[in-house]
Amino acid sequence: MPVTDRQAHQLLDADGNVTRDKPWIIRTYAGHSSAKASNELYRSNLSRGQTGLSIAFDLPTQCGYDSDDPIARPEVGKVGVPVNSLDDMHVLFDGIPIEQMNTSMTINGTAMWLLALYVALARERGVEEKLLTGTTQNDLIKEYLARGTYIFPPAESLRITAEVYEFCLEEIPDWNASNICSYHLQEAAATPTQELAFALANAIGLLDLLKERGRFSGEQFERAVGRISFFVNAGIRFVEEMCKMRAFAEMWEDITAERYGVSNPKFRRFRYGVQVNSLGLTEAQPENNAWRILIEALGVTLSRNARCRALQLPAWNEALSLPRPWDQQWALRLQQILAYETDLLEYPDLFDGSPVVASKVAALRRDAQREIDAILEMGGVIAAIESGYMKSALVRSMGERMSAINTGEQIVVGLNKWTEGLPTPLLSGDDGGIFKVDDRAARETIANLERTRATRDAARAQHALETLKRAARSGESMMEPSIECALARVTTGEWAGALREVFGEYRPATGIDGQRLGLPEDRVGRLRRRIAALGDRLGHRPRIVVGKPGLDGHSNGAEVIAVSARHVGFDVIYSGIRLSPEEIVRSAVDEDADVIGASVLSGSHVELARQIIALLDGYGARARIKLVLGGIIPPGDVPVLHTLGVERVFTPSDYQLIDIMESIADLVEARVDADEPWDAAVEPAVP
Amino acid sequence: MSTATEIGPSLSELVDRARGHDPHAVATLVSAFQDRREPAGARRQAVMSALDSMAGRRDAVVIGITGAPGSGKSSLLARLTDELLRADAELTLAVLAVDPSSPISGGALLGDRTRMRATTDPRLYFRSEAADAELGGLSPSSFQVCRLLSRLFDCVVVETVGIGQSEADIRHLADHVYLVLAPLGGDELQLMKAGITEIPDAFVVTKSDEPSSGRTHRQLCTSLWLARPADGDSLPIFLTSARTGAGIGELRGAVADQIASGPVADRAARDRYFLERWVKDEWGRAGLAHLHAALGGAGAALERAGDLDATAREFAKSFRRAIGTRS
To answer: CATH class for domain A25-427?
Structure first.
């Protein structure tokens, strides 16, 4: 019965009855090993009450390589599911009714390809394309800035994104062609202001482009504005985060109305999904992360006016390894308790009228607007990327964050304060509390890929690729040609390879300038003197090659190491990301480096270390060049790495940069006294 | 020293391997040519005499590529070396990239390797060096390293960050110098003021896919006409884009022709210049005066000792004796 005198705390539906909101879409970000194993995982997650799918792809799929490509081999099935062709898609969605499913794909450089595969799957299943709902992440701006799985140069990448919008608007109207991501910016230590400004500038860049391309009528353009959705992060400062979400919604409302003249309020709504913060999760006392995740989830759910539409929570052990099915279930249960057990969804917005919240939101908006204006002044988001402006800003924020943690100004419980504690029982299971990908899965994936290549109609595949390249060159939409490629069993590597041929590959600006490190000056001074002295004894300043072998593009850690090493007096050769082990070793050999510092976050550290050491052996440089590794490395793997010949392993618990630098200096010092082959090689020349 | 003989490869084996472009052997030798410790001079002398005693190889052609930070040198070099190697299956190339170092920590961030795919081609060797000064230019050992690489490869490309004065060094080191300019790299007045337009044999304007590159090209033509009235009109200007590959073919053709016709710079003059520069760096003006007064100048000293490192040792001994008696 409708309520006649509504009380302020009551939430009413359209008919005036007291109601409660429907929960957000509940997901876990999942995928690993192979299409078959991931399919089993999705089905069991859905049976446990998950209401949407969020697909994690492995790095070769994200970067456009087939599973049997040399650079891909160590990464197959590691951080997500490998998808080589439409055959894999059939396995991945086996028994899952895609017409009823909301499927979110974290895919960027190859987003158009994965959408083409999904559409092709629908066509072969006889499902109407219009019924598909979900998201392709498809935000390349943040890939250049933080995440690193871009393939093509910015202009071409944005063209692909735009073409996906142009296709989806009429063909798959409920599909989110892209997600504007501020999530990854916060993972790269962006401040709330930077998150707001960079994400909104990114959205402006995209809408300006759609407008400029002129493929949409005025009415279509309004609808396209309504299709823009965001993917946001939520950190531990949850009150500020809640205010950030309100600022986002208000600013988006203004931008769509003022800059784009969108009149329909429905198309001006700020729609967003969330994955809460992983940057602040610690390897030390990992059980504390469970509380952090809970608090972060509150930041994006408490305020009804700025509540997320879909939520993913990381697992408590993310700083240690990829989550096991049980870890994901535990994260899922947290969402279910929040949505179904608590009274959260029974109320209107809790913060409307709060002067504190209003003032905080206003302050965030003011700062963010200033930053947006600065970016637009520079010529927009692409110019700000190509000049390195945004990247440098993020790297500086990362430096400031690390500096604050190093000095204790920012408290991280269990990491820099109250570090003494009982050992966690959560890690004492048979599996050590971490997830291992079965090596056999990659072999099966590759066997399937070979079967696809052997059994397809080769002429059709070839023809489809030629058509794709023609479209790429002529400026026609590549979407339908991509769908034909998918149907013709073209592979992921072939699709991306064809476009690499036309567009070239992008090498980005690095953010290695302008960092503030917050290293303790007294120890830096001592270390500099030590390194200078080492240089006198070695005949050269100690040299370190820093790079990221493999495909994972989270380069900020490696960059902080490179800059710190220079700061304490090493000569540093920073070789960037996406290197094959061969490239990083060859570079170290050419440079006659003392140390290779490799950063690996993808879980492939053992394979990569093995390959690097074998290659050093091949060049006869194993005794000469020492290997140190950093990244997310489970404690159980550390002895394995030492046995392989890795000299030092740094994990997130080694957050003190100066300790890492001293440790590397120790390593170089240890070999100074060893006989160099050189001294043996030359007779003492008599002048 | 006697027990050590067992662990190390013999000198001639190391030199042989380096001549076969084994990267680890080349790298080990390069390190000796960068080494500032006294005994390293003897090693260098031994390596040079071993290399010179082997018949056959002509000295490499040295190409200097210089330009301000951000002018697009690294991307250009990546494309250029790639195309040079692709066009000639026999060609071997070494790149020596000299980067500024931090005056505070002494450390350097070498190279913009992120713009250049690391090589895995055995015919290409890539080495970085830290310049002593923050402003770039050559490192004190660049000349030494270049001497070595010249005897191992067909072509040595020396890449430097060029800001003004220090660029005179590259003029003396290279057979041909290319100045790289990015669009909007400065107005015509600045080009002339810096004096750098007087050094290069050719210009490369990068990023020609950007609209402003046309203007840069025109400005360059105007300032050359003013700065180098004698040859300004005949200096080649290449308009290139590492992104699209435009103009790289022409540049590649020009460099390939220069490689084919062999070194042009006067080797003896080069040795004299760098000996004097070394003396001045290490011993100052008094050293330079001593070189002339006591040893009859760089030319005579080099001729007497027969080798650069031998001359340097000779000089050091003589100069120490001279100041020792005085004090």
So the answer is: alpha beta
Q: Cβ B128–A536 below 8 Å, yes or no?
A: no
pTM of the complete model: 0.75
Q: Is 3.40.50.300 the CATH classification of the domain at B61-261?
A: yes
Between CA B204 and CA B226 the distance in angstroms is: 19
Nearest to A308 by CA among A177, A408, A182: A182
Which residues does residue B61 pair with via DSSP β-bridges, in sequence order? B155
Contact A583 B111 (CB under 8 A): no
Average pLDDT for A527-545: 91
The class of domain A521-675 in CATH terms is alpha beta
Q: For residues A491 and B76, what is the distance between their CA atoms, to the nearest angstrom?
A: 32
pLDDT computed for residue B8 by the predictor: 40
Active site residues per annotation of A: 29, 183-184, 548, 552, 554
Contact A592 B101 (CB under 8 A): no
CA distances from A116 to A52, A111, A390, B247, B303 (A): 20, 8, 32, 36, 73
Model pLDDT for residues B295-311, shown as the tens digit of each residue: 999 999 999 998 899 99
Given this model, what pLDDT does residue A478 score?
Answer: 98
Residue range A479-505: average pLDDT? 95
What gap in Å lies between CA A26 and CA A45, rounded to an integer?
A: 10
**Spatial distance between the Cα atoms of B175 and B170, rounded to a whole number of angstroms:** 9
Termini Cα distance of chain A:
108
- Give kind and range of the element (H or E) at residue B237: strand B237-239
DSSP assignment string, A323-385: PPHHHHHHHHHHHHIIIIISSGGGSS-SSTT-HHHHHHHHHHHHHHHHHHHHHHHTTSHHHHH
A507 vs B contacts (CB less than 8 Å): 75, 114-117
What are the residue ranges of CATH 3.20.20.240 in chain A? 25-427
Q: What is the enclosing helix (H) or strand (E) of A53?
A: strand A53-56
* Contacting A residues, span 17-36, partner chain B, CB-CB under 8 Å: none
From CA B309, how far away is CA B211, in angstroms rounded?
50
Domain map (residue ranges) of chain B? 1-56, 61-261, 266-327
pLDDT value, residue B111: 59
A502 in contact with B, Cβ within 8 Å: no
Boundaries of CATH 3.40.50.280 in chain A?
521-675
Q: In chain A, which among 80-139 make CB contacts under 8 A with chain B?
A: none
pLDDT confidence bin for B267, thresholds 50/70/90: confident
Within 13 Å and on the Cβ side, how many CA atoms surround A136?
Answer: 28
The answer, yes or no, to whether residue A633 has pLDDT greater than 90, is no
HSE of A46, CA atoms in CB hemisphere, 13 A: 19
The answer on pLDDT for A588 being more than 90 is yes
DSSP class of residue B60 equals P
All residues of chain B having their beta carbon less than 8 Å from the beta carbon of residue A620 are 22, 24
* Pair type for strands A595-600 and A626-631: parallel
Is residue A15 a contact partner of residue A67, using CB atoms and an 8 Å limit? no
**What is the spatial distance between Cα A14 and Cα A149, in angstroms, rounded to a whole number?**
44
- Residues B151-179 have pLDDT tens digits of 999 999 999 876 555 667 888 899 999 98
Residue A604 backbone phi and psi in degrees, to 5: -95, 20
| CA A290 vs CA A240, A331, A579, A636: distances in Å | 20, 8, 35, 22
Q: Is A673 on the interface with B (CB under 8 A)?
A: no
Placement of tokens 């070789």 in the chain: A575
Exposure on the CB side of residue B92, measured as CA atoms within 13 A: 20
Q: Alpha-carbon distance A659 to A661, whole Å?
A: 5
Burial of B228 (0-12, 13-18, 19+ CB in 10 A): middle
Confidence of residue A520 (pLDDT cuts 50, 70, 90): confident
